[in-house]
Design goal:
By secondary structure, the protein is α/β, with parallel strands linked by helices. It folds into two domains: 134 residues, Alpha-Beta Complex (Aspartate Aminotransferase, domain 1), CATH 3.90.1150.10; 244 residues, Type I PLP-dependent aspartate aminotransferase-like (Major domain) (Aspartate Aminotransferase, domain 2, 3-Layer(aba) Sandwich). Helices cover 42% and strands 15% of the residues. α1 runs antiparallel to α10 and α3 packs across α4. The longest helix has 21 residues. It starts with 5 loop residues before the first strand and ends with a helix.
C-alpha cells in the first residue's frame, strides 16, 4: 500500500475521518426528511461560523468561483459600478467575472506582498459612488491577508455593499458579518472547513436579498439567489438536485468547527502559522507577504539561493508532504503551504520534520537555529491568551 501523503496545499485540505465517514454514507433522496434536517442544520451552523444572525445562508453544488459569480450578479445591476480591491490572483478573478458579464468596475491594486491600504479605499470611495466593493480576504497566490475589518469600517459610511471573498479564510480567520456590517461572505468547502471540494458557499445580509428582489432580472439562472432561496428555507423543495453526500459531509465539518469553538479555532490557526513560519525563517526561507499581511491559513514561501522548486517539492512529496507551486509571476520562485482546516498537532510536527529531512536530502546547507514545534502545551497558552483578550 502506498504511503498516504499529508496534503498541505492551499486547498483541498486534509479531511478528518469523521467527515470522510459522513461522505461515505449511502446516498439519500434529496427530499428525504433526514437530508432536509441535515441541510437545515448545516445552513444554521454556517451562519454561526461567520457570526451572522439576520441573513441567509446558501450551500450549492459548485466551487468558490461560482460563489464569486453569485455574489457579484446578485448585488448590483449593469448601470451600477463595482470596486474591486485586488491583492493578487483572485482579485484578478473578480475582474474577469465582472468583465465576462459586461459589468462596470474599477480596480484598486496593492503593491506586491501587501494589501490595499484602507486609506486608499477611503479616498476612492469618497470620490465616486459604488454599488458594491469586493475584496479577497486571503489571496491564495500571494498569501496576503487583507484588513477586512478596517475596510468594513470605511464602507459602512456609504450606501455600498461589501463582498468578502473568504475562500481561504472563512473558518480559520475571523469574519464577523453582523458586527462588521459585511453583506456577503463567500467561500468553498475545501479550505478551512476541511471538506472535499464541490460546494459553493455564501452567507448574505438581509439587504442583499432585498436588493436582488428589487432587480427585475439578472444575467444568471443557476447563480440567481432567488432561485435558491426557497430551497434554503425549505430543502424539501426542488430547484436543482443537490450534492447530497457532499452536503452531509459539510454538515459534519461545521460540527467539528463549532465543537472546537470559533475563538479556539482562530487561535489554533494563528499558532500553527507562527510555528511553521518560525521553522522556515530559521532555515533561511522568507515570505511573499510583508508584515502585517501574513495570513494564518497559508504561507507563500520564497526559496533561498540554492533550492530549485521542482526538486524541492518532489523530494518533499517523497518524504510525505505535498505543497503547491507558485501561480503566475511566482511560478518556480515560491512554494505555497496551506496550514488550515483540521490539522492536528502531530501532522504539523510531521511536516516540520519532513521539511528538515527534505532539505538534508537535497543538500541544502542551511542549519536549524531553533526547535520550532507544534506542541499542545504551547497552543493552550496562545489559545487562552486570545480568548482572554477578546
Amino acid at each position: 500500500m502506498k504511503q498516504e501523503k499529508l496534503l498541505l496545499i492551499p486547498g483541498p485540505t486534509p479531511v478528518h475521518p469523521r467527515i470522510l465517514n459522513a461522505l461515505s454514507q449511502p446516498t439519500l433522496s434529496h427530499v428525504s426528511p433526514v437530508f432536509v434536517a441535515e441541510l437545515k442544520e448545516a445552513l444554521a451552523n454556517l451562519k454561526k461560523i461567520v457570526f451572522n444572525k439576520r441573513g441567509e445562508s446558501f450551500i450549492v453544488a459548485g466551487a468558490g468561483t461560482l460563489a464569486m459569480e453569485m455574489a457579484l450578479l446578485n448585488t448590483f445591476a449593469k448601470q451600477e459600478r463595482l470596486l474591486i480591491l485586488s491583492q493578487g490572483f483572485f482579485g484578478q478573478r473578480m475582474e474577469k467575472i465582472a468583465r465576462s458579464f459586461g459589468l462596470d468596475y474599477d480596480v484598486l491594486r496593492s503593491e506586491q506582498g501587501k494589501a490595499v491600504e484602507p486609506g486608499m479605499l477611503d479616498e476612492r470611495i469618497s470620490q465616486r459612488a459604488y454599488a458594491a466593493v469586493a475584496a479577497t480576504h486571503v489571496d491564495t497566490a500571494t498569501g496576503v491577508c487583507a484588513p477586512i475589518r478596517e475596510y468594513a469600517q470605511i464602507i459602512r459610511e456609504y450606501e455600498t455593499f461589501f463582498i468578502v471573498d473568504g475562500v481561504c479564510a472563512t473558518g480559520g480567520i475571523e469574519e464577523r458579518m453582523d458586527e462588521w456590517e459585511v453583506d456577503i461572505v463567500l467561500t468553498a468547502a475545501q479550505k478551512c472547513f476541511g471538506v472535499p471540494p464541490g460546494l459553493a458557499v455564501l452567507v448574505v445580509s438581509e439587504r442583499v436579498i432585498k436588493k436582488r428582489e428589487s432587480m427585475k432580472t439578472i444575467p444568471a439562472f443557476y447563480a440567481d439567489l432567488l432561485n435558491w432561496l426557497p430551497i434554503m428555507k425549505d430543502p424539501s423543495k426542488y430547484f436543482s438536485t443537490p450534492s447530497v453526500n457532499e452536503m452531509r459531509a459539510f454538515l459534519e465539518g461545521t460540527k467539528i468547527m463549532l465543537e472546537e469553538g470559533m475563538e479556539n479555532r482562530f487561535a489554533r490557526h494563528s499558532r500553527v502559522a507562527q510555528t511553521i513560519r518560525t521553522k522556515l525563517l530559521d532555515l533561511g526561507f522568507s515570505f511573499v507577504p510583508e508584515n502585517p499581511y501574513l495570513a494564518d491559513t497559508l504561507s507563500v514561501v520564497r526559496y533561498p539561493d540554492g533550492i530549485e522548486d521542482g526538486v524541492f517539492r518532489k523530494t518533499f512529496a517523497e518524504n510525505g508532504v505535498i505543497v503547491a507551486g507558485g501561480l503566475g509571476d511566482f511560478a518556480g520562485k515560491v512554494f505555497r503551504m496551506g496550514h488550515m482546516g483540521n490539522l492536528s498537532f502531530s501532522q504539523v510536527d510531521f511536516a516540520l520534520d519532513s521539511l528538515e529531512k527534505t532539505l538534508a536530502s537535497i543538500g541544502y546547507p542551511g542549519k536549524l537555529k531553533s526547535n520550532a514545534r507544534m506542541t499542545e502545551s504551547k497552543f493552550e497558552t496562545v489559545r487562552n491568551k486570545r480568548v482572554k483578550d477578546k
